[in-house]
Design a protein that fits this description.
This protein is of the alpha/beta class. The protein folds into three domains: about 220 residues, Tandem AAA-ATPase domain (Rossmann fold, 3-Layer(aba) Sandwich), CATH 3.40.50.10810; about 170 residues, 3-Layer(aba) Sandwich (Rossmann fold); about 90 residues, no CATH class. The chain is built from 20 helices and 23 strands. A hairpin with a 2-residue loop joins strand 19 and strand 20.
Length: about 550
């Protein structure tokens, strides 16, 4: 046995402990080497004759990184000659060469490695391939970025949980196991051990939720007897942490890596007069809506279709067309609609007002866009490369236009660019382009200096995983969202192995606006996650 790349001490220790365990949760922070550990594990299992195949399920794009980057970097030299790997993409599933490649992997005599996206698993073709793969091979089943299965009632989660029993070895990999709340832990552990929670006294997800959460029953109003439950707080979090310890390994970068520090800074700016006026009007409308009296469901409501309630994350909530009163007389409204209204407030701080009707044009607010101005000042004052994360596509449009006008080279990475364009964006930012041989990256070649990009502009929902962007030393959050997972994952694109400099994170905050509320919500989510994972609660944001 010879490692392709030498492990760090924490990787070697965990590998020696868990390499032949049937199940293991690797809750290691981003950039601490989860992929390498897994590849060293699969090589050992294959050499011992315990597996002959690997299934990696990961977010779209990340699944290709396993085949194009991680395996070439870490697969043992003793194993590589006998290995056939392929990244299955659902958008190319109908192509003959794609079908032939999947067939070649399934039928390969030696070690087969099939990487699929979470979306591909849900297609008919993807399920058919998986059924055959499980029937014919002894599989190590790996869920990368496993927080993608956080909702037990979702079809994706159900499909993956049902398939787990066919694999003799299973691993879940995520640096953020508690992305939204304490209940995220339930499906992750259930994938590894279907009866784990049952053996501890939680026969159902409902029992799990009610033990670790405090709930209040609410009514839709005086004229409606239907009830629903609202989560008001978590409890027993220390106990939950202890229950997960036997099956999980937790590592943070501070524990095991000598990386340069993260530095945080807030750039506070004032709304221009027109923004301030519009923001005040929308805020007053929002508060009036929150305090509106209870009423009967709207039969024409497109969201609930007159039912008065909708299901969100397996819980029943009143629809936004039906504000209702709790026991104290304070209105309880659906979180989805409240967030939509908060989103409109945030968009005003970004310089525009979305129309109520999709057929109407976007209203650009007159006057100086102070948020955009603050960003340009940061880019101008920074000599090295910069990452800019923005929540809205229009934000990215405005940023790209402003950077082009200022003569700053920039690349875009969001839902509006193709896979080819994303690869080109990464190459321009990193200053090197991958060389493909038989569909696998065999090396890199430099690109011309004139093609280099100083600024990487992306949406964290698209680019927060699977990227290494250690060329940047400054990361700007132009507009945040409420998702802790997107924030933590996007931070660590720059702060990971390979980073030799302190990384400065700058949040652009419009004073006395929803910007401050979003940061507060992220802070609270991180505190809850830290209690469950046992991490030290740090100064952040």
């Amino acid at each position: 046995m010879t490692f392709k790349t030498q492990p760090f001490k924490h990787q070697k220790s965990e590998w020696e402990y868990s390499r032949e365990l049937a199940t293991r949760a690797i809750f290691w922070e981003q950039g601490t080497g989860k992929s390498k550990l897994t590849i060293d594990t699969l090589c050992h299992l294959y050499m011992r004759g315990l597996i002959d195949a690997v299934l990696v399920v990961a977010p779209n794009g990340v699944h290709r990184n396993w085949v194009e980057q991680e395996l070439p970097a870490h697969l043992w030299d003793d194993v590589a000659p006998n290995t056939q790997a392929f990244a299955y993409s659902s958008d190319k599933a109908g192509a003959q060469h794609h079908k032939k490649s999947v067939e070649r992997v399934i039928q390969h005599v030696g070690l087969s490695i099939l990487a699929m996206s979470y979306d591909a698993v849900m297609t008919k073709a993807g399920k058919d391939y998986l059924n055959r793969y499980f029937k014919q091979r002894k599989i190590l089943y790996v869920l990368d970025e496993a927080h993608y299965i956080k909702n037990p009632s979702a079809a994706r989660t159900k499909t993956i949980l049902k398939s787990a029993k066919f694999a003799p070895f299973r691993r879940v990999l995520t640096g953020t196991p508690i992305a939204n709340g304490a209940f995220d832990a339930y499906p992750l552990i259930k994938f590894l051990e279907p009866d784990y929670w049952k053996a501890l006294g939680f026969a159902t997800f409902t029992e799990f939720k009610h033990y670790f959460g405090i709930w209040q029953k609410q009514r839709l109003g005086d004229n409606d007897k239907r009830e629903f439950e609202v989560l008001v707080a978590y409890r027993h979090l220390d106990e939950l942490q202890n229950l997960m310890k036997p099956i999980a390994s937790r590592v943070t970068k501070d524990d095991v890596l000598d990386l340069p520090p993260k530095l945080y800074q807030k750039r506070i700016f004032q709304l221009n007069p027109e923004q301030a006026r519009l923001y005040s009007e929308l805020k007053n409308d929002f508060m009036a809506w929150l305090n509106s009296p209870a009423k009967i469901a709207d039969a024409n409501c497109p969201q609930c279709k007159g039912a008065g309630e909708i299901i969100v994350d397996s819980l029943i909530y009143p629809c936004g067309c039906v504000p209702v009163e709790d026991v104290s007389g304070t209105n309880v409204v659906i979180a989805e609609l409240a967030i939509t209204r908060l989103l409109r407030l945030q968009q005003v701080t970004c310089g525009y007002v979305p129309p109520e009707d999709n057929n109407e044009p976007m209203h650009m607010i007159q006057g100086t866009n102070k948020r955009l101005e603050a960003l340009l000042n940061i880019v101008e004052q920074t000599q090295h490369k910069v990452i800019v994360w923005a929540r809205f596509q229009l934000d990215i449009d405005l940023i790209m236009q402003a950077l082009e006008k200022a003569g700053v080279s920039a690349v875009r990475y969001d839902g509006r660019v193709t896979e080819t364009e994303r690869s080109d964006a990464i190459a321009r930012f990193k200053g090197k382009r991958p060389i493909f041989v038989d569909g696998v990256v065999s090396g890199y070649e430099p690109i011309e200096v004139k093609e280099h990009a100083k600024v990487f502009v992306g949406n964290p929902a698209v680019g927060a995983t699977g990227l290494t962007l250690t060329e940047a030393k400054t990361v700007v959050y132009y507009s945040n969202n409420f998702k802790l997972i997107d924030r933590l994952q996007s931070e660590d694109r720059a702060h990971r192995i390979g980073q030799d400099n302190p990384v400065l994170y700058v949040d652009l905050i419009a004073e006395n606006t929803v910007d401050e509320k979003i940061v507060q919500a992220l802070r609270e989510k991180l505190d809850i996650a830290s209690q469950i994972t046992g991490d030290e609660i740090k100064e952040w944001l």
